[in-house]
Amino acid sequence: MHFGIWNLEFGIRDVLVASLLLSATAVGACRTHEEPEPARVVTVDVAPVLLSTIHRTIRTQGLVYPRQQAAIVPKLSAPIKKTYVQRGARVRAGQLLVELENRDLAGAAAENRAAYEQAEANYETAARATVPQEVQKAELEARAAKDALDAQQAIFDSRQRLYQEGAIAQKDVNEAQVNLSQARMQYETARKRLDDLQGFARTQALKAAAAQRDTAKGRQESAEAQLGYSRLSSPIDGVVTDLPFYPGEMPASGQAIVTVMDMSQVIARTHVSQSEAAELAVGDEAHLIGLDGAPVPGKVTQVSPALDTTSTTVEVWVQAENREGKLRPGTSLRVEMIATTVANALVIPQAAVLTSPSGATFAMVVDNDNKPHRRRIGVGIRDAGQAQVTDGLASGQRVATTGAFELFKLEDEILTKTKVQIAPTKEEEEPEET
């Protein structure tokens, strides 16, 4: 009885083991006949690696100023007599704009002009007049001394001749010679006195006349200047932008009564960081983007050597033509300054540049079989959605843009089994019109 039960249990166990072995064999057979796992497909946009020119552009906001501006403040305090221009009028340098009340100044100028003319006439008279009476007396004395000298010379010559003939004694000759010497000394003394009197008197008279003339001239010029201050002229070519007073009104002291701006060229003043300022130089190309969005070409004309104390930034000026007057002073606009230009650079869309946590830059290259490859690249200038590739790519290759980050996240083993599907362009998506 027990023997039969044991045989029965043994038989059931053998059946179970056999069943398990058969099941395992069947499963293994099924696995060996399974098809391989299909490749992953990722849809991306692609862009070619192109040879192009790329710029390092510094973009910021700026405020427009005129190239020149003259806010004319009168030096006199007087009512406005007449205005010769209107607001918006174009004027030339030296053109009369406004005249103040000046009748008292015109009278003073005329009076001082007459005084100067009189002083000038007195000077001319002194320069051409005869010598004073004292000089005349010295001149007469010198003439008399000369006559006496001539007479003594004649006596001496006569006595010397008679002495040689034996007609007179030597004593008479000696006496004549002494008289001649005295006469010569008197003449030289009189002549020197005359020369001194003539030089001193003439010099002093001319000095006095010249001083009176110069004083009168100074007063006349001062009066003319005061009269000129009442006539306000434009110091520059430009446009009258402000004329706040009417004839008859009395402007407050120190207040401008007319403003002229030269808007044929404008200057956009902007501020950039110290690092950006280090990239800029006078003469760099720039653009001012007006309210209509059209770029106006210009040049960098000034990069301040000092920092703005309030913002620790650097002020930069960009000057541009404004012949049509589209750019108005006081307008805030966008300023673009080209710091560096690289010709024949390898350029890809900035969306194709991928950055790892360590800071390294990569691009996903798509080959001719639409297989993606992770490629480390060097990046230079980035501007306006484009990036310069300095290393790692060649012209004509394709890089993924939209969808590139999904590929970049894949492990290398999965990436090798991934295939790229190129997304259709917008033109391809639009149906043809019938």
Descriptive account of the structure:
39% of the residues lie in helices and 33% in strands. It is an alpha+beta fold and 434 residues long. Strands 3-9-12-11-10-13 form a six-stranded antiparallel beta barrel. Strands 2, 14, 15, 16 and 19 form a five-stranded antiparallel sheet that branches. A three-stranded antiparallel sheet has the order 4-6-7. Strand 11 and strand 12 form a beta hairpin. The longest helix is centred in the middle third of the chain and has 60 residues.
Measured by DSSP, the beta-strand proportion falls in 25-35%
**Gyration radius from CA atoms, angstroms:** 55 Å
Strand order of the largest sheet: 3-9-12-11-10-13
Instruction: For the record, give the distance between the C-alpha atoms at the N and C termini, rounded to a whole number.
Output: 95 Å
